[in-house]
TrEMBL record:
InterPro entries with a match to the protein in the record: Flavin_Rdtase-like_dom, NADH-dep_flavin_reductase, NFP_flavin_reductase, Split_barrel_FMN-bd
SMART domains hit by this protein: Flavin_Reduct
PANTHER family with a match to the protein in the record: FLAVIN REDUCTASE, FMN REDUCTASE (NADH) RUTF
UniProt name for this protein: Flavin reductase
Lineage: Bacteria, Thermotogati, Deinococcota, Deinococci, Thermales
NCBIfam families with a match to the protein in the record: HpaC_Thermus (NF042921)
SUPFAM superfamilies given in the database record: FMN-binding split barrel
Domain Flavin reductase like: 9-144
Superkingdom of origin organism: Bacteria
Pfam assignment, any one: Flavin_Reduct
């Protein structure tokens, strides 16, 4: 069951995000694909965050977080914030520079979700970057969207 579950979910294509939060001098970022748009009125998004993620206590205490939607070519950024440090990757102004878009959220609600927490954020501000194509995770690897001509 466990292997079939993982295999099935590897067949689900997801955009890649970096979730970030700051509390005083401590700022943390984490790569996440368990992200979804939840509601338009009010504007809500939802995220699955592992209960042991170092991001979690910072986000919970800060009651606020940002979600940077990664663009194609930002594989190194995703790897960095997934625990495989890369040269020259850093947050700027609490978000990933060059992201397709950034959602600035207030923590709205948290629900149990097995070994993860289902985190709901109310979007208070949207920052749009240059339009472009997303970084996609599918079949245990990074993929690119091919835009039909
Ligand atoms: C494609 C993909 C999708 C994933 N989706 C999810 C998901 O939806 N939910 C989930 O819970 N996990 C997900 N993960 C796993 C998650 O990204 C890793 O387990 C991650 O390492 C957990 O981060 P952490 O908060 O525990 O802290 P760490 O592992 O310590 O932090 C992650 C990395 O970010 C760096 N970092 C942290 N803060 C900063 C900062 N302020 N400036 C510069 N670098 C910093 C750290 O040095 C470290 O290399 C995913 C991983 C991948 C590859």
């Amino acid at each position: 069951m466990r292997e079939a579950f993982k295999e099935a979910l590897s067949r689900f294509a997801a955009g890649v995000t970096v979730v970030s939060a700051r509390l005083g001098q401590e700022e943390r970022g984490m790569t996440a694909t368990a992200f979804m748009s939840l509601s338009l009125e009010p504007p809500l998004v939802a995220l699955g965050i592992h209960e042991k993620a170092k991001l979690w206590p910072v986000l919970e205490a800060a009651r606020a977080f940002s979600v940077s939607l990664l663009r194609e070519g930002q594989e190194a950024v995703s790897q960095h914030f997934a625990g495989r440090p890369q040269e020259g990757v850093a947050l700027e102004e609490g978000r990933v520079p060059g992201a397709l878009a950034v959602l600035r959220c207030r923590l709205e609600a948290v629900y149990p979700g097995g070994d993860h927490r289902l985190v709901v954020g109310r979007v208070e501000r949207v920052e749009l970057g240059e339009p472009g194509l997303p970084l996609v995770y599918f079949g245990r690897g990074y993929r690119r969207v091919v835009w039909p001509s």
